[in-house]
Write a structure and sequence with these properties.
Layout lengths: L7 H10 L1 E4 L2 E4 L17 H13 L5 H12 L7 H14 L2 E8 L7 E7 L1 H20 L8
Antiparallel strand pairs: 1-2, 3-4
Helix pairs in contact: 2-3, 2-5
């Protein structure tokens, strides 16, 4: 909160309900399904969900090109997936602590260049699980439990 000063009664209401109103301003505290507070950066976007899912499915063979290929399979032609966006998002997920990367050995098949491999971390798995839980709730609400929209 910027320069909005809350009195003790307002603080208590905000802490108890997660909502505080002052004039036309309404403040909310966002809670994920398990009731623990998460910071804004803890929520995953659709592209981040796709990348983390791809990493889990690929296991030990997860590097830029294979992640990109797996994501294209997952989106099934419903959206464009650029290789540059994959790398940018992988870098962001690594800064958040959701992904770890390392450089493998150089291979003749790649002209002596090495591959940068990626692995989802336990924190990344937890964030993906929370995100997919919410998505599952949305699908159930609309009656799409079978996966067909």
């Amino acid at each position: 909160m910027t320069d909005l000063a809350l009195d003790n009664r307002s603080d208590a209401l905000y802490a108890r309900t997660g909502k505080f109103e002052k004039g036309s301003l309404t403040l909310y505290r966002y809670l994920p399904y398990n009731g623990e507070e998460m910071s804004k950066g803890d929520f995953l976007g659709e592209f981040e969900q796709l990348i983390l899912t791809g990493l889990m499915l690929l296991g030990e063979n997860a590097y830029g090109a294979t992640i990109h290929e797996r994501m294209e399979q997952l989106v099934d032609g419903k959206r464009f997936v650029s290789l540059g966006a994959v790398y940018t998002t992988l870098d962001r997920l690594e800064r958040k602590g959701y992904v770890k990367s390392w450089v493998g050995g150089a291979t003749a098949e790649r002209g002596g260049r090495s591959k940068r491999f990626f692995k989802i971390t336990a924190t990344g798995e937890a964030a993906l699980k929370n995100s997919l839980h919410v998505a599952g709730n949305l699908l159930r609400e609309f009656g799409y439990a079978g996966g067909q929209l």
